[in-house]
Amino acid sequence: MELQVGVLISFIMYLQLFFRPIRMIADRYNTLQLGVVSSSRIFKLLDSQEHIADEGSFAPAKIRGEIQLRKVWFAYNEEEWVLKNIDFKVASGQTVALVGATGAGKSSIINLISRFYEINKGEILLDGRTIQDYSLGNLRKHIGVVLQDVFLFSDTIYYNITLGNPDISREQVLAAAELVGARKFIERLPGGLDYNVMERGATLSVGQRQLISFVRAMVYNPAVIILDEATSSVDTETEELIQSAIEKMMQGRTSIVIAHRLSTIQKADRILVLHQGELKESGTHEELLQQQGYYANLHQMQLKSVAI
Ligand SMILES: Nc1ncnc2c1ncn2[C@@H]1O[C@H](COP(=O)(O)OP(=O)(O)O)[C@@H](O)[C@H]1O
Ligand SMILES: [Mg+2]
Fold first, then answer.
1. Ligand 1 pocket, 111 CB below 6 A?
2. Which residue in 131, 180, 242, 256 has the most C-beta neighbors within 10 A?
3. In this structure, are residues 157 and 214 in contact, taking their beta carbons and an 8 Å threshold?
4. β-strand pairing of 121-126 with 67-75
5. Average model confidence (pLDDT) for the chain?
6. What is the pLDDT along the chain (308 residues), one digit of tens a residue?
7. How far does the centroid of ligand 1 lie from the alpha carbon of residue 82, in Å?
């Protein structure tokens, strides 16, 4: 039997017509699977129990801001100790810098002080009283936290600073912005405080986003400031602005800083060196350099990589 060209071509075309819907179904199936996985994660999150019990009722209007960790042990997962027997005290108004390699446990200490996680053993005291006595709202009002990654909502600058708390006036926001040196750039934006940052702040520079997170922390005028210094590089001018903002924030406040900038570390009253969840050394920059231990080592490495 002979095959005519026309039949062959229509055969090929019919084949394509036949397979296309099948391929489309397969594609849809992939999308569906992605959706199933995502929604299972979302439901898990929605179902997760708030593991921090807000049972404290102590809510002082003002605190001195003295922080003490007493024999603190902590694990995210059963018995895999991330922090082991951490013991230190920060007097009111003092600045302490936490240093240590990645994974040493610096961020974990910060998470514990602001009670994002609960410790397993030991005690964390604020003005001599365990932080569990304080109401969570009160505790977090007194402790201003600035994390490395700034999360901005697609909303106004004002909303991003107050996070929807109607008790914070525009004057308060502007005063805090003034303090960290962010007022100028905010007022230059179209609409000022009402400027919509869109797409999680895509229209702002890295430095501007950081400044906004500083204002966010300062708006309650906290007695304690906890800072996870960002490592992202910014231009020299912004760097100076941020550096001076950090100094102003720390002034007159108890400060615990995860420092990457050598200048911040050197200015600290005390440096705490963490290594694999243990507090290895403590002292000033000069004292620790003389000890020729972990800190001196870290210092050497960082000078070499110029990452500091
Ligand atoms: N949410 C978490 N769940 C489980 N383990 C974690 C979590 N966060 C940090 N860790 C682990 O805890 C240890 C200390 O981490 P971290 O406190 O972030 O250190 P650092 O800030 O000094 O880099 C690391 O081994 C890290 O893998
Ligand atoms: Mg960290």
1. no
2. 256
3. no
4. antiparallel
5. 88
6. 788 889 999 999 999 998 898 889 988 998 999 999 999 988 888 877 667 778 888 999 999 999 999 999 999 988 799 999 999 999 999 999 999 888 999 999 999 999 999 999 999 999 999 999 999 989 989 999 998 888 888 889 999 999 888 888 999 999 999 999 999 889 998 888 888 887 766 778 888 889 999 999 999 899 999 998 877 677 787 888 888 899 899 999 999 999 887 778 888 999 999 999 999 999 999 999 999 998 998 888 876 654 44
7. 7
Please give the single-letter amino acid code of residue 57: S
Are residues 18 and 132 located together in one domain of the fold? no
CA atoms within 13 Å, Cβ hemisphere of 199: 4
Q: Which atom of ligand 1 is nearest to the CA of 101?
A: 22
> Same domain, yes or no, for 188 and 39?
no
Whether 75 contacts 122, CB under 8 Å: no
Question: Which is nearest to 148 in space by CA: 259, 263, 7, 268?
Answer: 259
Both 86 and 207 in a single domain?
yes
Q: Which residue has the tokens 């229209």?
A: 203
Give the residue numbers spanning the domain of 190.
Answer: 67-307
Ligand in closest contact with the CA of 116: 1
Task: Answer yes or no: is 54 within a domain.
Answer: no
The pTM (predicted TM-score) of the whole model is: 0.79
My answer on whether 118 and 263 are in the same domain is: yes
Q: 281 and 213 share a domain?
A: yes
Ligand 1: does its nearest atom lie under 6 Å from the Cβ of 82? yes
Same domain, 138 and 248: yes
Closest ligand 1 atom to residue 98 Cα is 22
Q: Please give the distance, rounded to the nearest whole angstrom, from the Cα atom of residue 287 to the centre of ligand 1.
A: 28
Cβ of residue 231 lying under 6 Å from some atom of ligand 1: no
Structure token pair of residue 80: 């895999």
- CA pair distance 131, 122, nearest whole angstrom: 12
- Minimum-distance ligand 1 atom for the alpha carbon of 100: 22
